[in-house]
Amino acid sequence: MSTPPITADEFRATASAIEREVSRVIVGQQPLIRQLMVTLLGGGHALLEGAPGLGKTLLVRTLAQVIDCSFSRVQFTPDLMPADIVGGTILVRDDAGDRAFRFEPGPVFANLLLADEINRALPRTQSALLEAMQERHVTVAKTTHELPQPFFVLATQNPLEMEGTYPLPEAQLDRFFFKIDVPYPNLEDLLEIADRTTAAQSVAPVIVAHADTIRAMQLLARQVPIAGHVTEFAARVLMATHPEDSGAPDAIRRFVRYGASPRGLQAMILGAKVSALLDGRYNVSFDDIVAAAPPALRHRVILNFEGQAEGIPADRIVEAALKAQTTRVRQG
After folding, report:
1. CATH number at residue 167
2. How far is residue 260's CA from residue 239's CA, in Å, rounded to a whole number?
3. When comparing pLDDT for 183 and 76, which is higher?
4. What's the pTM value of the predicted model, to 2 decimals?
5. Is the pLDDT of residue 165 over 80?
6. 118: domain range?
7. 191 and 288 both lie in a single domain
8. What total number of domains does the chain contain?
9. How confident is the model at residue 323 (pLDDT cuts 50, 70, 90)?
10. Main-chain phi, psi angles of 144, to 5 degrees
């Protein structure tokens, strides 16, 4: 079944309506909502890192309600098994009394899946989810089952409690389109949260889009043109995160062991295309690449021992790469 096309004006109007409805429930966090929208419309998955109680579950559930999509939540624990996520084959008896095997879908069969505290599950369980994220289908008992579209995974990590966890390997972190940091709300937002959540009536978001609309928006985002010199700028930023590259600044040569993978370039470009459409433009600028670089690259840069010992944040590395390439562009 083909997806009906959508215009650039309809894209922006729909995205604005989605953000507006989500903001009626979620107080503040506008950069977070925007980056989630960019990830969803770019066809990727997001990894959120933030303290507990910041509304991550409510955010994803609200987004699913606004775009009229199915939602599932999985609390990752050490005893969680792959079948608890993707589903499994069970033996059932039909009306005639005959026995047969039937596939029982797991929670991964939803448009929006919240993988809460993904680093608390065993690596084999993490891999089952990450395979579904990459392939957009699961295979059980030699039978392949397609996942619903759109398919968007929002995985969370708690940076405060790392004891007893299984940190995601670099190759699996690379499957995430964006890594988004969830900031703590300021005083004004805290007061607004208190007013909204302790009132007699709660705010109910309305549906402003559907799954077909989201798929059409994802298709349109890929059609946004990007000039060759802008693509080259993004590629040079990516290469500058590698310490052996001639354009790498001193901080990267000193603190980085491995730079970002080509998936980081794909995320930067797709994220920039979505950002351009959200701003009402049908072309990608340098500023779009600069805005997409931190969430697209921060989880793809691997620090060396010295960088880890000194607590160098990944954003500092990405900022150094951006600054080096921006200076090169300005100098001609």
Report:
1. 3.40.50.300
2. 8
3. 76
4. 0.88
5. no
6. 8-77+109-215
7. no
8. 2
9. very high
10. -95, 130
Residues 20 and 130 in one domain: yes
**Which residue do the tokens 């009132």 mark?**
199
Q: How confident is the model at residue 3, as a pLDDT?
A: 66
What's the CATH number where 228 sits? 1.10.8.80
Assigned domain for 100 exists: no
Asked whether residue 99 is domain-assigned, the answer is no
Q: What is the pLDDT of residue 163?
A: 64
Given 176, 195, 215, which residue is the final one in a domain? 215
* pLDDT tens column, 143-155: 888 888 889 999 8
For residues 54 and 150, membership in a common domain is answered with: yes
Helix (H, G, I), strand (E, B) or coil at 113: strand
The distance in angstroms from the start CA to the end CA of the chain is 48
Instruction: List C-alpha distances in Å: 222 to 96, 164, 227, 275.
Output: 50, 41, 14, 12
Percent of the chain clearing pLDDT 70 (strictly above): 96
pLDDT, residue 194, reads: 79
**pLDDT value of position 37:** 92
Q: State both tokens at 215.
A: 């798929």
Q: Return d(Cα 177, Cα 271) in angstroms, integer.
A: 9
- Contact present, 177 and 296 (Cβ < 8 Å): yes
Are 147 and 107 within 8 A, CB to CB?
no
